[in-house]
Amino acid sequence: MNRKRHSLEFKMKIAKEVEETQNxxxxxxxxxxxxxxxxxxxxxxxxxxxxxxxKKLTDTSPANTNSxxxxxxxxxxxxxxxVAEKTLENEILRDLVKKQTPHLMKNLK
Length: 109
What we know:
81% of the residues lie in helices and 0% in strands. By secondary structure, the protein is mostly helical. It is built from five helices and no strands. The two termini are 41 Å apart.
C-alpha cells in the first residue's frame, strides 16, 4: 500500500472544514481519509494558529525584530567559525594520513 502525501493547502482546507462543521469524522468520510489523520491535521492547525497569534502579540515591536536578527547573525558567525575549524582539522588529518600511508589516499579522494 503506497503512502499518499497531501499538500499543506489541502490539509489546511480540511482543517478549516472541520472547524466549520465541528465534525471531523464526517469530513474524513467525505474526503475518504482516516479520522485520526484529520484530527491530527486539525490539532496542528489549531496549534499553529495559536502560535501565530501569540507571536503577533509578543513580536510587534521593531526592537524585538532587530534583536532576533542580531542573535541569528551571531549564531551564523559561530557556525561559520566551527565549520572553518573542522575543515582545517580535516585537511591536517588528510595530510598526516598521506604522509604516513600514501597507499590509503586513493580511497579517501
